[in-house]
UniProtKB/TrEMBL annotation:
InterPro entries: Acyl-CoA-binding_prot_CS (IPR022408), Acyl-CoA-binding_protein (IPR000582), Acyl-CoA-binding_sf (IPR035984), ClpP/crotonase-like_dom_sf (IPR029045), ECH/Chromodomain_protein (IPR051053), Enoyl-CoA_hydra/iso (IPR001753), Enoyl-CoA_hydra_C (IPR014748), FERM/acyl-CoA-bd_prot_sf (IPR014352). Residues 4-89 form the ACB domain. Its EC number is 5.3.3.8. GO terms for molecular function: delta(3)-delta(2)-enoyl-CoA isomerase activity; fatty-acyl-CoA binding. It catalyses: (2E)-tetradecenoyl-CoA = (3Z)-tetradecenoyl-CoA; a (3Z)-enoyl-CoA = a 4-saturated (2E)-enoyl-CoA; (3E)-tetradecenoyl-CoA = (2E)-tetradecenoyl-CoA; a (3E)-enoyl-CoA = a 4-saturated (2E)-enoyl-CoA. This is Enoyl-CoA delta isomerase 2. It is found in: Mitochondrion; Peroxisome matrix. CDD domains: crotonase-like (cd06558).
Protein backbone atom coordinates (compact mmCIF):
# COMPACT_ATOMS: atom_id res chain seq x y z
CA UNK A 1 0.00 0.00 0.00
CA UNK A 2 1.37 3.44 -0.96
CA UNK A 3 1.85 6.11 1.72
CA UNK A 4 -0.66 8.96 1.43
CA UNK A 5 0.12 12.66 1.84
CA UNK A 6 -1.49 12.36 5.32
CA UNK A 7 0.86 9.47 6.25
CA UNK A 8 3.77 11.60 5.06
CA UNK A 9 2.70 14.58 7.19
CA UNK A 10 2.21 12.32 10.22
CA UNK A 11 5.69 10.93 9.70
CA UNK A 12 7.12 14.47 9.57
CA UNK A 13 5.52 15.15 12.95
CA UNK A 14 6.70 11.83 14.36
CA UNK A 15 10.31 12.73 13.55
CA UNK A 16 10.07 15.67 15.92
CA UNK A 17 8.93 13.32 18.68
CA UNK A 18 11.79 10.83 18.45
CA UNK A 19 13.22 10.28 21.91
CA UNK A 20 16.77 9.77 20.69
CA UNK A 21 18.84 11.58 18.10
CA UNK A 22 18.91 9.12 15.17
CA UNK A 23 22.42 10.18 14.13
CA UNK A 24 23.73 12.01 11.11
CA UNK A 25 23.47 9.22 8.58
CA UNK A 26 19.77 8.72 9.26
CA UNK A 27 19.14 12.47 9.38
CA UNK A 28 20.76 12.81 5.97
CA UNK A 29 18.59 10.01 4.60
CA UNK A 30 15.48 11.65 6.03
CA UNK A 31 16.47 14.98 4.55
CA UNK A 32 17.16 13.44 1.14
CA UNK A 33 13.91 11.48 1.06
CA UNK A 34 11.94 14.54 2.18
CA UNK A 35 13.45 16.68 -0.61
CA UNK A 36 12.95 13.94 -3.19
CA UNK A 37 9.35 13.38 -2.09
CA UNK A 38 8.49 17.08 -2.18
CA UNK A 39 10.70 18.48 -4.95
CA UNK A 40 11.77 15.47 -7.03
CA UNK A 41 15.37 14.77 -8.16
CA UNK A 42 18.11 17.08 -6.92
CA UNK A 43 18.27 20.06 -9.26
CA UNK A 44 20.32 22.60 -7.34
CA UNK A 45 24.03 23.33 -7.85
CA UNK A 46 26.49 21.32 -5.77
CA UNK A 47 27.82 23.32 -2.78
CA UNK A 48 31.56 23.94 -2.55
CA UNK A 49 33.83 21.34 -0.94
CA UNK A 50 34.32 23.45 2.18
CA UNK A 51 30.59 23.81 2.76
CA UNK A 52 30.61 20.42 4.50
CA UNK A 53 27.07 20.30 5.84
CA UNK A 54 25.31 21.47 2.70
CA UNK A 55 27.57 19.28 0.56
CA UNK A 56 26.64 16.21 2.66
CA UNK A 57 22.95 17.11 2.31
CA UNK A 58 23.31 17.67 -1.42
CA UNK A 59 25.20 14.39 -1.83
CA UNK A 60 22.48 12.49 0.03
CA UNK A 61 19.70 14.02 -2.06
CA UNK A 62 21.63 13.66 -5.32
CA UNK A 63 22.35 9.98 -4.54
CA UNK A 64 18.64 9.24 -4.80
CA UNK A 65 18.90 9.83 -8.54
CA UNK A 66 15.52 9.63 -10.23
CA UNK A 67 13.72 7.78 -7.43
CA UNK A 68 10.01 8.65 -7.95
CA UNK A 69 8.33 11.05 -5.53
CA UNK A 70 5.79 8.43 -4.35
CA UNK A 71 8.53 5.87 -3.59
CA UNK A 72 10.50 8.52 -1.71
CA UNK A 73 7.40 9.41 0.32
CA UNK A 74 6.85 5.73 1.10
CA UNK A 75 10.52 5.23 2.06
CA UNK A 76 10.40 8.29 4.29
CA UNK A 77 7.30 6.96 6.09
CA UNK A 78 8.86 3.49 6.45
CA UNK A 79 12.09 4.94 7.79
CA UNK A 80 10.31 7.10 10.36
CA UNK A 81 8.15 4.22 11.46
CA UNK A 82 11.19 1.96 11.94
CA UNK A 83 12.89 4.72 13.95
CA UNK A 84 9.83 5.26 16.13
CA UNK A 85 9.46 1.50 16.71
CA UNK A 86 13.08 1.02 17.68
CA UNK A 87 13.24 4.11 19.85
CA UNK A 88 10.12 2.88 21.71
CA UNK A 89 11.15 -0.77 22.03
CA UNK A 90 14.81 -0.44 22.99
CA UNK A 91 15.28 3.22 23.66
CA UNK A 92 18.15 3.06 21.18
CA UNK A 93 18.40 3.76 17.49
CA UNK A 94 21.14 1.93 15.64
CA UNK A 95 21.86 3.53 12.27
CA UNK A 96 20.59 1.34 9.47
CA UNK A 97 20.30 -1.66 11.75
CA UNK A 98 19.07 -4.90 10.20
CA UNK A 99 17.19 -3.32 7.35
CA UNK A 100 17.72 -2.39 3.79
CA UNK A 101 18.60 1.23 3.28
CA UNK A 102 15.73 3.14 1.75
CA UNK A 103 16.40 4.38 -1.75
CA UNK A 104 18.87 1.62 -2.44
CA UNK A 105 18.40 -2.12 -2.14
CA UNK A 106 21.90 -2.60 -3.46
CA UNK A 107 23.48 -2.08 -0.07
CA UNK A 108 22.39 -3.66 3.20
CA UNK A 109 23.78 -2.38 6.47
CA UNK A 110 23.29 -4.26 9.73
CA UNK A 111 24.60 -3.72 13.24
CA UNK A 112 24.81 -6.70 15.56
CA UNK A 113 27.13 -8.13 18.21
CA UNK A 114 29.39 -5.08 18.05
CA UNK A 115 29.89 -5.49 14.29
CA UNK A 116 28.53 -3.17 11.59
CA UNK A 117 28.30 -5.17 8.36
CA UNK A 118 28.00 -3.47 4.99
CA UNK A 119 26.85 -5.99 2.37
CA UNK A 120 26.98 -5.36 -1.39
CA UNK A 121 23.66 -6.68 -2.61
CA UNK A 122 23.50 -6.81 -6.42
CA UNK A 123 24.23 -10.51 -6.85
CA UNK A 124 22.71 -10.61 -10.37
CA UNK A 125 25.34 -8.04 -11.46
CA UNK A 126 28.13 -9.66 -9.45
CA UNK A 127 27.88 -6.73 -6.99
CA UNK A 128 29.22 -4.18 -9.50
CA UNK A 129 29.33 -0.73 -7.89
CA UNK A 130 26.93 1.99 -9.06
CA UNK A 131 27.33 5.69 -8.15
CA UNK A 132 24.53 5.33 -5.60
CA UNK A 133 26.40 2.43 -3.98
CA UNK A 134 29.60 4.50 -3.71
CA UNK A 135 27.59 7.22 -1.96
CA UNK A 136 25.76 4.77 0.30
CA UNK A 137 28.98 3.02 1.29
CA UNK A 138 30.46 6.40 2.25
CA UNK A 139 27.39 7.19 4.36
CA UNK A 140 27.51 3.74 5.93
CA UNK A 141 31.21 4.10 6.83
CA UNK A 142 30.58 7.56 8.23
CA UNK A 143 27.77 6.16 10.43
CA UNK A 144 29.83 3.11 11.43
CA UNK A 145 32.71 5.32 12.51
CA UNK A 146 30.37 6.90 15.08
CA UNK A 147 28.05 4.08 16.15
CA UNK A 148 28.78 1.79 19.07
CA UNK A 149 30.11 -1.10 17.02
CA UNK A 150 33.71 -2.16 17.63
CA UNK A 151 34.54 -3.22 14.08
CA UNK A 152 33.13 -2.84 10.57
CA UNK A 153 32.93 -5.45 7.84
CA UNK A 154 32.49 -5.19 4.06
CA UNK A 155 31.23 -8.28 2.24
CA UNK A 156 29.15 -9.34 -0.77
CA UNK A 157 25.92 -11.25 -1.25
CA UNK A 158 25.91 -14.07 -3.80
CA UNK A 159 28.76 -15.82 -5.58
CA UNK A 160 30.91 -12.70 -6.09
CA UNK A 161 32.48 -10.34 -3.57
CA UNK A 162 32.40 -7.53 -6.15
CA UNK A 163 33.06 -7.12 -9.87
CA UNK A 164 34.38 -3.58 -9.45
CA UNK A 165 33.07 -0.41 -10.98
CA UNK A 166 29.80 -0.90 -12.88
CA UNK A 167 30.89 -0.41 -16.47
CA UNK A 168 27.46 0.88 -17.44
CA UNK A 169 28.36 3.97 -15.37
CA UNK A 170 30.13 5.03 -18.55
CA UNK A 171 27.03 4.86 -20.73
CA UNK A 172 24.25 7.33 -21.52
CA UNK A 173 26.57 10.31 -21.27
CA UNK A 174 25.23 13.13 -23.46
CA UNK A 175 27.79 14.47 -25.97
CA UNK A 176 29.65 17.42 -24.53
CA UNK A 177 29.35 16.09 -20.95
CA UNK A 178 32.04 13.42 -21.14
CA UNK A 179 34.73 15.58 -19.56
CA UNK A 180 32.40 16.75 -16.80
CA UNK A 181 31.48 13.15 -16.03
CA UNK A 182 35.14 12.14 -15.89
CA UNK A 183 35.78 15.06 -13.54
CA UNK A 184 32.89 14.20 -11.22
CA UNK A 185 33.84 10.51 -11.39
CA UNK A 186 37.34 11.37 -10.20
CA UNK A 187 35.93 13.44 -7.31
CA UNK A 188 33.63 10.59 -6.33
CA UNK A 189 36.52 8.13 -6.49
CA UNK A 190 38.75 10.36 -4.37
CA UNK A 191 36.06 10.98 -1.74
CA UNK A 192 35.21 7.28 -1.68
CA UNK A 193 38.78 6.07 -1.16
CA UNK A 194 39.39 8.86 1.41
CA UNK A 195 36.63 7.33 3.57
CA UNK A 196 38.57 4.05 3.71
CA UNK A 197 41.86 5.81 4.47
CA UNK A 198 40.24 7.69 7.36
CA UNK A 199 38.04 4.94 8.80
CA UNK A 200 39.00 4.89 12.48
CA UNK A 201 37.95 1.40 13.62
CA UNK A 202 39.24 -2.02 12.54
CA UNK A 203 37.92 -2.61 9.02
CA UNK A 204 37.54 -6.19 7.81
CA UNK A 205 36.88 -7.51 4.30
CA UNK A 206 35.03 -10.82 4.21
CA UNK A 207 35.80 -11.78 0.61
CA UNK A 208 33.08 -14.32 -0.16
CA UNK A 209 34.00 -14.84 -3.84
CA UNK A 210 35.93 -13.35 -6.77
CA UNK A 211 36.94 -9.70 -6.50
CA UNK A 212 37.69 -7.37 -9.41
CA UNK A 213 39.04 -3.84 -9.86
CA UNK A 214 38.47 -1.32 -7.11
CA UNK A 215 37.20 -4.00 -4.72
CA UNK A 216 40.69 -5.54 -4.89
CA UNK A 217 42.76 -2.38 -4.74
CA UNK A 218 40.90 -1.14 -1.65
CA UNK A 219 41.95 -4.25 0.27
CA UNK A 220 45.30 -2.59 0.94
CA UNK A 221 43.42 -0.13 3.17
CA UNK A 222 41.67 -2.83 5.24
CA UNK A 223 43.03 -4.11 8.55
CA UNK A 224 42.05 -7.76 8.00
CA UNK A 225 41.14 -9.56 4.77
CA UNK A 226 39.56 -13.02 5.11
CA UNK A 227 38.92 -14.89 1.87
CA UNK A 228 37.18 -18.07 0.81
CA UNK A 229 39.42 -20.37 -1.21
CA UNK A 230 36.99 -19.74 -4.12
CA UNK A 231 37.99 -16.06 -4.26
CA UNK A 232 40.22 -14.63 -6.96
CA UNK A 233 41.81 -11.18 -7.12
CA UNK A 234 41.89 -9.43 -10.47
CA UNK A 235 42.91 -5.89 -11.42
CA UNK A 236 42.64 -5.79 -15.23
CA UNK A 237 43.36 -2.07 -15.52
CA UNK A 238 45.45 -2.20 -18.70
CA UNK A 239 42.85 -4.42 -20.39
CA UNK A 240 40.32 -1.68 -19.63
CA UNK A 241 42.59 1.19 -20.70
CA UNK A 242 42.59 2.34 -17.06
CA UNK A 243 45.13 2.73 -14.27
CA UNK A 244 45.38 1.66 -10.61
CA UNK A 245 43.33 3.34 -7.88
CA UNK A 246 42.49 2.75 -4.20
CA UNK A 247 46.11 3.68 -3.31
CA UNK A 248 47.20 0.32 -4.75
CA UNK A 249 50.08 1.95 -6.66
CA UNK A 250 51.60 2.44 -3.20
CA UNK A 251 50.10 -0.28 -0.96
CA UNK A 252 50.60 -3.22 -3.35
CA UNK A 253 54.33 -2.80 -4.02
CA UNK A 254 54.77 -2.09 -0.31
CA UNK A 255 53.02 -5.24 0.83
CA UNK A 256 54.19 -7.52 -1.96
CA UNK A 257 57.81 -6.54 -1.65
CA UNK A 258 60.47 -5.61 -4.18
CA UNK A 259 61.22 -7.54 -7.34
CA UNK A 260 61.46 -11.23 -6.79
CA UNK A 261 64.38 -12.54 -8.77
CA UNK A 262 63.85 -16.03 -10.12
CA UNK A 263 66.81 -17.70 -11.86
CA UNK A 264 66.06 -20.02 -14.72
CA UNK A 265 67.02 -23.65 -14.79
CA UNK A 266 70.79 -23.73 -15.37
CA UNK A 267 70.51 -26.64 -17.78
CA UNK A 268 68.13 -24.81 -20.11
CA UNK A 269 69.87 -21.47 -19.55
CA UNK A 270 66.69 -19.47 -18.99
CA UNK A 271 67.00 -15.75 -18.51
CA UNK A 272 66.61 -14.14 -15.16
CA UNK A 273 62.98 -13.20 -14.52
CA UNK A 274 62.40 -10.25 -12.26
CA UNK A 275 58.92 -8.75 -12.25
CA UNK A 276 57.52 -7.43 -8.96
CA UNK A 277 54.26 -9.19 -8.13
CA UNK A 278 52.47 -5.86 -7.77
CA UNK A 279 53.42 -4.94 -11.33
CA UNK A 280 52.26 -8.30 -12.58
CA UNK A 281 48.85 -7.58 -11.06
CA UNK A 282 48.45 -3.85 -11.64
CA UNK A 283 50.11 -3.53 -15.05
CA UNK A 284 49.70 -6.96 -16.62
CA UNK A 285 46.38 -7.81 -14.96
CA UNK A 286 47.48 -11.18 -13.55
CA UNK A 287 44.63 -12.76 -11.60
CA UNK A 288 45.70 -14.22 -8.24
CA UNK A 289 44.11 -17.16 -6.46
CA UNK A 290 43.22 -16.66 -2.81
CA UNK A 291 46.29 -18.59 -1.72
CA UNK A 292 48.58 -16.56 -3.98
CA UNK A 293 47.03 -13.35 -2.64
CA UNK A 294 47.68 -14.60 0.89
CA UNK A 295 51.31 -15.38 0.09
CA UNK A 296 51.64 -11.84 -1.33
CA UNK A 297 50.26 -10.26 1.86
CA UNK A 298 47.01 -8.98 0.31
CA UNK A 299 44.90 -11.56 2.18
CA UNK A 300 45.27 -12.28 5.89
CA UNK A 301 43.87 -15.82 5.87
CA UNK A 302 42.16 -18.20 3.45
CA UNK A 303 39.35 -20.55 4.57
CA UNK A 304 37.72 -23.53 2.83
CA UNK A 305 34.56 -22.31 1.12
CA UNK A 306 32.42 -24.92 2.93
CA UNK A 307 33.25 -23.50 6.37
CA UNK A 308 34.14 -19.92 5.39
CA UNK A 309 31.13 -18.04 6.80
CA UNK A 310 31.03 -20.03 10.03
CA UNK A 311 34.72 -19.76 10.82
CA UNK A 312 35.03 -16.09 9.90
CA UNK A 313 32.04 -14.90 11.90
CA UNK A 314 33.03 -16.86 15.01
CA UNK A 315 36.42 -15.16 14.79
CA UNK A 316 34.97 -11.69 14.20
CA UNK A 317 32.45 -11.97 17.03
CA UNK A 318 35.32 -12.77 19.40
CA UNK A 319 37.36 -9.80 18.12
CA UNK A 320 34.39 -7.45 18.47
CA UNK A 321 34.35 -8.09 22.22
CA UNK A 322 37.84 -6.69 22.70
CA UNK A 323 38.02 -3.18 24.23
CA UNK A 324 36.98 -0.91 21.33
CA UNK A 325 39.04 2.10 22.36
CA UNK A 326 42.22 0.04 22.57
CA UNK A 327 41.56 -1.36 19.08
CA UNK A 328 40.86 2.08 17.66
CA UNK A 329 44.01 3.55 19.19
CA UNK A 330 46.18 0.64 18.06
CA UNK A 331 44.87 1.09 14.53
CA UNK A 332 45.72 4.79 14.74
CA UNK A 333 49.25 4.00 15.87
CA UNK A 334 49.71 1.58 12.98
CA UNK A 335 48.09 3.72 10.28
CA UNK A 336 48.30 7.40 11.15
CA UNK A 337 51.80 8.16 9.94
CA UNK A 338 50.84 6.92 6.47
CA UNK A 339 47.54 8.82 6.21
CA UNK A 340 48.82 12.04 4.68
CA UNK A 341 50.78 10.10 2.09
CA UNK A 342 47.80 7.92 1.24
CA UNK A 343 45.56 10.97 0.70
CA UNK A 344 48.14 12.45 -1.68
CA UNK A 345 48.46 9.16 -3.58
CA UNK A 346 44.68 8.86 -3.79
CA UNK A 347 44.40 12.37 -5.25
CA UNK A 348 47.09 11.62 -7.81
CA UNK A 349 45.64 8.25 -8.86
CA UNK A 350 42.15 9.79 -9.19
CA UNK A 351 43.39 12.56 -11.42
CA UNK A 352 45.35 10.15 -13.64
CA UNK A 353 42.29 7.94 -13.93
CA UNK A 354 40.18 10.95 -14.88
CA UNK A 355 42.43 11.31 -17.95
CA UNK A 356 42.35 7.59 -18.71
CA UNK A 357 38.53 7.58 -18.76
CA UNK A 358 38.72 9.99 -21.71
CA UNK A 359 41.15 7.82 -23.67
CA UNK A 360 40.25 5.78 -26.76
CA UNK A 361 41.73 2.69 -25.07
CA UNK A 362 39.28 2.98 -22.21
CA UNK A 363 36.27 3.82 -24.36
CA UNK A 364 36.95 0.85 -26.68
CA UNK A 365 37.27 -1.52 -23.71
CA UNK A 366 33.94 -0.37 -22.27
CA UNK A 367 32.20 -0.66 -25.66
CA UNK A 368 33.61 -4.18 -26.06
CA UNK A 369 32.35 -5.22 -22.64
CA UNK A 370 28.92 -3.72 -23.17
CA UNK A 371 28.57 -5.29 -26.60
CA UNK A 372 29.50 -8.60 -24.94
CA UNK A 373 32.61 -8.91 -27.08
CA UNK A 374 34.91 -8.95 -24.07
CA UNK A 375 34.75 -10.43 -20.65
CA UNK A 376 37.61 -10.77 -18.23
C1 LIG B 1 33.81 6.33 -9.64
C2 LIG B 1 34.77 5.30 -9.18
C3 LIG B 1 35.40 4.52 -10.30
C4 LIG B 1 36.35 3.50 -9.78
C5 LIG B 1 36.99 2.70 -10.86
C6 LIG B 1 37.26 1.41 -10.69
C7 LIG B 1 37.90 0.58 -11.75
C8 LIG B 1 37.43 -0.84 -11.73
O1 LIG B 1 36.77 -1.32 -10.84
S1 LIG B 1 37.91 -1.73 -13.09
C9 LIG B 1 36.98 -3.24 -13.00
C10 LIG B 1 35.69 -3.16 -13.76
N1 LIG B 1 35.06 -4.45 -13.79
C11 LIG B 1 35.11 -5.28 -14.83
O2 LIG B 1 35.75 -5.02 -15.83
C12 LIG B 1 34.34 -6.56 -14.70
C13 LIG B 1 33.41 -6.75 -15.87
N2 LIG B 1 32.67 -8.01 -15.72
C14 LIG B 1 33.09 -9.18 -16.24
O3 LIG B 1 34.12 -9.28 -16.88
C15 LIG B 1 32.24 -10.39 -15.98
O4 LIG B 1 30.91 -9.96 -15.82
C16 LIG B 1 32.69 -11.18 -14.72
C17 LIG B 1 34.03 -11.86 -15.04
C18 LIG B 1 32.82 -10.27 -13.51
C19 LIG B 1 31.64 -12.28 -14.41
O5 LIG B 1 31.46 -13.10 -15.55
P1 LIG B 1 30.28 -14.20 -15.52
O6 LIG B 1 30.27 -14.87 -16.84
O7 LIG B 1 30.42 -15.07 -14.32
O8 LIG B 1 28.94 -13.36 -15.29
P2 LIG B 1 28.26 -12.32 -16.29
O9 LIG B 1 27.15 -13.02 -17.02
O10 LIG B 1 29.27 -11.63 -17.11
O11 LIG B 1 27.67 -11.26 -15.24
C20 LIG B 1 26.32 -11.28 -14.79
C21 LIG B 1 25.72 -9.91 -15.06
O12 LIG B 1 26.47 -8.93 -14.34
C22 LIG B 1 26.92 -7.90 -15.21
N3 LIG B 1 28.19 -7.37 -14.71
C23 LIG B 1 29.17 -8.03 -14.09
N4 LIG B 1 30.15 -7.19 -13.78
C24 LIG B 1 29.80 -5.99 -14.21
C25 LIG B 1 30.42 -4.71 -14.18
N5 LIG B 1 31.63 -4.50 -13.59
N6 LIG B 1 29.77 -3.66 -14.71
C26 LIG B 1 28.55 -3.82 -15.28
N7 LIG B 1 27.91 -5.02 -15.35
C27 LIG B 1 28.53 -6.07 -14.81
C28 LIG B 1 27.07 -8.61 -16.55
O13 LIG B 1 27.05 -7.69 -17.60
C29 LIG B 1 25.84 -9.51 -16.54
O14 LIG B 1 24.73 -8.69 -16.82
P3 LIG B 1 23.51 -9.25 -17.70
O15 LIG B 1 22.95 -10.40 -16.91
O16 LIG B 1 22.56 -8.10 -17.81
O17 LIG B 1 24.11 -9.68 -19.01
Amino acid sequence: MRASQKDFENAMNQVKLLKKDPGNEVKLKLYALYKQATEGPCNVPKPGVLDFINKAKWDAWHALGSLPKETSRQNYVDLVSSLSASSESSGQVTPAADRKQPGSDALVVTSQDGITTITLNRPDKKNALTPQMYHDIMLALEAASKDDSAIAVLTGNGDYYCSGNDLTNFTDIPPGEVEDRARSGAVLLRDFVDCFIDFPKPLVAVVNGPAVGISVTLLGLFDIVYATDRATFHTPFSHLGQSPEGCSSYTFPKMMGPSKVIFGNLKTKCNVISIPKATEMLVFGKKLTAREACTQGLVTEVFPDSTFQKEVWVRLKAYSKLPPNAMRISKQVIRNREKEKLHAINAEESSILQERWLSDECMNAIVNFLSKKAKL
